[in-house]
Amino acid sequence: MIRRAPQRPAADPLVEACAPAAGPEILRERGQWEAFCGLTGIIWLHRKIQDAFFLVVGSRTCAHLIQSAAGVMIFAEPRFATAIIEERDLAGRADMNDELDRVVGRLLERRPDIKMLFLVGSCPSEVIKLDLSRAASRLSQVHTPRVRILAYSGSGIETTFTQGEDACLAALVPQMPDETAADGRSLLVVGALADVVEDQMRRIFAELGIERVSFLPPRRAGDLPAVGPLTTVLLAQPFLAETARLLENRGARRLSAPFPLGVDGTTAWLATAARAFGVEPDLFERVIAPRRDRARMALDRHRGELAGRSVFFFPDSQLEIPLARFLARELDMTLTEVGTPFLHRRHMAPELAQLPPGVLISEGQDVDRQLDRCRAARPDLVVCGLGLANPLEAEGLTTKWSIELLFTPVQGYEQAADLAELFARPLRRRKMLVA
Ligand code: SF4
């Protein structure tokens, strides 16, 4: 869908791959833009928090969006649904709050396995000004302590799709207990990671001697980690501006690090945590070296296919800048343009410092003008949303859906080669088609 663009809310001794480069050129655009909405985040969040349920309060369009994105993967009881806002609701002939209370009551009666319920707002619920935060507190009085009921917005009005996760995690922050002095220092990794990636990270932190490590979101609703001034936050995803802000308001200290995409990104990310927790460089090297070397060898297999090829990013997932850094530095690809929906300068500073000099970064979008630039550049690969991919393929350009990067485990050493493969595959497919 196309909407108006939103108004946006040093050398490390442990890291060998982070030489700073000259500041990039930034083009700001505020025209029509094309992106999915925040409801999309439900697809990976419902897998992560295994006893949570996501109830979208929206239209049939919203229901179709999440069903078509995830429906084929449901084999057991689903953990998301849509409470449809009908025409009579829109016309004000029904009390939406009464209907919502009935729907929630029926759902929780039938599903005792649900421990956390998210009421997820949509464009229609925002347009009719249905206050889901108030509904969540009203329903909490009835259903707490059995179920915790929270609300956040997944609306596509002036947002991009990864902001759904940010809004969901931001709703969890006020629920996190205060840490106690007896708890001692802890590391809090923030951002939904696939379980396999989370397990790998836990093992590495344990081997580094960082003992108290927790993840947000947790796998179980009852396992929300504590937060406070003894908490050190390490963001695992680059799109969590609001969540980070709320955690910092609770006293936590955020580490500034590149994101764990690719071998160098993962090393720099881990090194930042290691330095903050006083890990000896020798121990860091002993723990990291075998994994880093294996991952580099696995990446080498893809360099031949990708080196020298040009790539153009349309703004969509907010992963674009870390991905561009990975493709340019570790696979020798050429960056034509790196579009990002928003540029959070503080969170992105370590990434920007590693981009090649002179690369064009665009923030926001004017989709027609950007399409013109893309057509003129004729890049080897275009990373974009689903809505642009098919028309560009029809024009002979090779595309990669950016949303796939959220559905696939891509962070960490063991996934670095898989991440490269995601970019190599469409190029291979194109070669076979034209052969
Ligand atoms: S929340 Fe808005 S953008 Fe998303 S599916 Fe519903 S109507 Fe469409």
Question: Explain this structure to me?
Answer:
The protein is α/β, with parallel strands linked by helices. It has 3 domains: 163 residues, Nitrogenase molybdenum iron protein domain (Rossmann fold); 118 residues, Nitrogenase molybdenum iron protein domain (Rossmann fold), CATH 3.40.50.1980; 103 residues, Rossmann fold, CATH 3.40.50. Helices cover 44% and strands 17% of the residues. It contains 17 helices and 16 strands. The longest helix has 26 residues. It is globular. 49% of the residues are buried. The chain binds iron/sulfur cluster. The site of iron/sulfur cluster has 12 residues, from α2.
Quick overview of this protein structure:
The protein is of the alpha/beta class.
Distance linking N and C termini: 34 Å
Q: Tally the structural domains.
A: 3
Q: Describe the global form.
A: globular
The helicity comes to: 40-55%
β-strand percent reads 15-25%
CATH superfamily of the largest domain: Nitrogenase molybdenum iron protein domain
CATH architecture of the largest domain: 3-Layer(aba) Sandwich
Describe the strand arrangement of the main beta sheet, using strand numbers: 2-14-13-12-15-16
Determine Rg (CA atoms, Å): 22 Å
- Major beta sheet, specifics? 6 strands, parallel
Topology-level CATH name of the largest domain: Rossmann fold
Assigned CATH class of the largest domain: Alpha Beta
Uncertain runs with pLDDT below 50, 5 residues or more? 1-21
